[in-house]
Design brief:
alpha/beta; Rossmann fold; 2 domains; 4-stranded parallel beta sheet; globular; Iso_Racemase_Enz_sf; Asp/Glu/hydantoin_racemase; plasmid; Aspartate/glutamate racemase family protein
Length: 223
């Protein structure tokens, strides 16, 4: 049985929004799932206003712990810390899959891309990843970033309805400037249908296509 380790920087995907666990169960049936959580590192990145060498080292250590526990594939559930996973991949001998890698590849095919986030630290890494994937194919899209202030804190407090209202409000405002909307956090996944209906745009979210890439990676490595 394959072992997949999921790296988290918040308990939100373990307790409040178990969307990743649900998708892995659906798309990779029979897989043995392990969760590794550093619930303070994201707060540290927010305080530092960026990823320090210390924060990167913490994510590398998390990946090494996952490998030591027998993980066949490591899945990173945090977009804000995405850049640290390149260092983590160099430090471990098993594949490391970023949750937003597949989403970034798809988003990069559009000319005007709106990146919507509820945590400020996610805007830069998500936009940078999309830009990098666009450059891989010789494209130079325009990326418009938009933050939904306070929405993540509201969600962590358990008020999904207010979180959703705040996100929808910003999405509606951003929609007139872009061709596609990218939801920078997996915690926004369930809003895809609502936002597509309200804005008339394609809305991309990382969890499902991210886990589909994870499933492909698990199959390719014979785990």
């Amino acid at each position: 049985m394959a072992k997949v380790a999921v790296l988290h920087t918040s308990f939100v995907f373990v307790t409040v929004e178990p969307v990743i666990t649900d998708l892995i169960t659906e798309l990779i049936p029979g897989v043995e799932l392990m969760h590794f959580v550093d619930s303070d590192v994201l707060a540290t990145v927010v305080r530092d206003q960026g990823i320090s060498a210390s924060s990167e080292a913490r994510m590398v250590h998390l990946a090494q712990a996952a490998e030591a526990a027998g993980a066949d594939v490591i899945f990173s559930a945090c977009s804000s810390l995405g850049p640290t996973l390149d260092a983590a991949q160099r430090a471990v001998g098993v594949p490391v899959v970023k949750i937003d890698e597949a989403m970034a590849v798809y988003a990069a095919t559009y000319d005007r891309i709106g990146v919507l986030a509820t945590v400020p630290t996610t805007l830069g890494p998500t936009s940078d990843l999309i830009t990098a994937r666009a450059l891989d194919s010789g494209r130079h899209p325009q990326i418009v970033q938009r933050l939904c202030p306070g929405a993540f804190d509201v969600l962590m407090g358990g008020d999904r309805e207010e979180h959703d209202r705040l996100v929808a409000e910003q999405a509606a405002d951003l929609a007139g400037e872009v061709d596609v909307l990218v939801l920078a956090q997996a915690s926004m996944q369930r809003l895809v249908g609502r936002l597509e209906s309200e804005t008339g745009l394609r809305v991309l979210s990382s969890p499902r296509i991210g886990v589909e890439l994870l499933a492909k990676t698990v199959r390719e490595h014979g785990a």
